[in-house]
Design brief:
The protein has about 425 residues and is an all-alpha fold. The protein is built from 20 helices and three strands. It has a three-stranded antiparallel β-sheet.
């Protein structure tokens, strides 16, 4: 058993009595009240999920295992010669709640190396698909095909104990996470680069190897590390995360669950926001003749846009009430590495002028930029200009958090999800009183 898995086993065994006690002794304590607007409005804000992996604080932003994004980027061991931490070390943190030592990071890296060979049948399936298939369709299909090798599926058929489900899910998750960078890079090179595939380099970490297989020079390795960390998890209620948890609660294995997660992420209301922001920015540039506007010119453009009934994409957030720390982490990277990029100059100007205008307008609950306001800009700068691939990059990162949550859900024995539905008649009775 690897040191990470052994540490995880210790943590799960320590945690189980806490959830068991809550259910047994305090199961009738009310956590929240549900309004009709929430029942009809997509269950927004209803407290009905449990995760210790991440929490979205309205004023501090996302916390991973209690650590803010600046703390995560500061405390995790860094790749030698790079600015950003190992993704492998970040996974260790998500799974255990502990900041790993460099030795523990290297052990996870070795474990990934031992698991990263992608079966040939996965590539055969990808090559059999129409080349104009959406990359998310290809990505989700490739992952689901690996159900063939599911450790949990085989162990379940043998009669594995319920308390050991997490162990088999861990094996599947580590096998999957080790392979998905190569699968994603293969899709990119096969689809957009005339099939010129770049082999994996076993000496490189996850982020560095992904950049290598994409064929993009440094500092894109740091872009990959930062991107995967920032997009890894965002509580459990967003569509991709919740879909993954929901499917896994039926004891569908990791491959089914993460494939389903990707299908949710592919929706235009979820994972496509960074693409839409970049398209909008490029449209703004075209409308201004490609020149860099002054602050006054940008203010006028923003006011004109708002007064015409349109919105400024990339600003606002359903929960956050401050600038998204994920945005700030990317902004710091841009200020250092691409300060003269013309699209970033537009992003920089919007960062300065939009929030005060939205505050003055008085309609926005949160006038600050979110993570999508510049993540596509960075990818475009480093040559990844195929918009539809951006969600695949998002999916690689999101798999880290969802896999971690699923392992813990099986470790704590959470049951299949089965919320109760009501009819419109029932809601009307609640709202209006009994019908005469």
């Amino acid at each position: 058993m690897s040191s990470l898995k052994k540490k995880l086993e210790e943590k799960i065994l320590q945690h189980r009595p806490r959830t068991e006690r809550l259910v047994k002794e305090y199961g009738d304590v009310k956590v929240d009240e549900v309004k009709i607007s929430q029942v009809i409005g997509g269950m927004r804000g209803i407290k009905c999920l449990v995760t210790d992996i991440s929490y979205l604080d309205p004023f501090e932003g996302i916390r991973f295992r209690g650590y803010t994004i600046p703390e995560v980027l500061e405390k995790l061991p860094k790749v030698p010669g790079a600015e950003m931490p190992y993704v492998e070390g970040f996974l260790y943190l998500l799974l255990t709640g502990d900041i790993p030592t460099m030795q523990e990071v290297e052990e996870v890296h070795k474990e990934f190396n031992a698991r990263k060979k992608v079966p040939q049948y996965v590539f055969d399936i990808l090559h059999a698909m129409p080349k104009d298939s959406h990359p998310m369709t290809m990505f989700a299909t490739a992952i689901m095909s690996m159900h063939l090798d599911s450790v949990f599926d085989k162990e379940y058929r043998k009669g594995i104990k319920k308390t050991d489900y997490w162990s088999a899910y861990y094996e599947d998750a580590m096998n999957l996470l080790a392979k998905i960078p190569e699968i994603a890079a293969h899709i990119y090179r096969w689809k957009y680069k005339d099939g010129d595939i770049i082999p994996s380099d076993p000496d490189l970490d996850m982020g560095g190897n992904f950049a290598h297989m994409m064929g993009i020079d440094r500092p894109y390795d740091d872009v990959a590390r930062l991107y995967f960390i920032l997009h890894s998890d965002h509580e459990s209620g967003n569509v991709s995360a919740h879909t993954g948890h929901l499917v896994a609660s039926a004891l569908s294995d990791i491959y089914y669950s993460i494939s389903a997660m990707l299908n949710g992420l592919a929706g235009p209301l979820h994972g496509l926001a960074n693409e839409e922001v970049l398209r909008w920015l490029q449209g703004v540039m075209d409308s201004m003749g490609g020149k860099i506007p002054t602050e006054e010119e940008m203010k006028k453009f923003v006011w004109d846009t708002l007064e015409s009934g349109k919105v400024i994409p990339g600003f606002g957030h359903a929960v956050l009430r401050k600038t998204d720390p994920r945005y700030m982490a990317q902004r710091e990277f841009c200020l250092k590495h691409l300060p003269d990029d013309p699209i970033f100059k537009y992003v920089d100007l919007l960062f300065k002028v939009v929030p005060p205008i939205l505050l003055e307008q008085g309609k926005a609950k949160n006038p600050w930029p979110n993570v999508d306001a510049q993540s596509g800009v960075i990818q475009w700068h480093y040559g990844v200009r195929e918009y539809e691939f951006y969600t695949v990059l998002f999916g690689i990162g999101r798999a880290l958090g969802v896999c971690s949550n699923i392992i813990w859900a099986r470790g704590l024995g959470y049951p299949i999800e089965r919320p109760k539905s009501v009819t419109t008649d029932m809601l009307e009775e609640i709202a209006f009183g009994k019908k005469s």
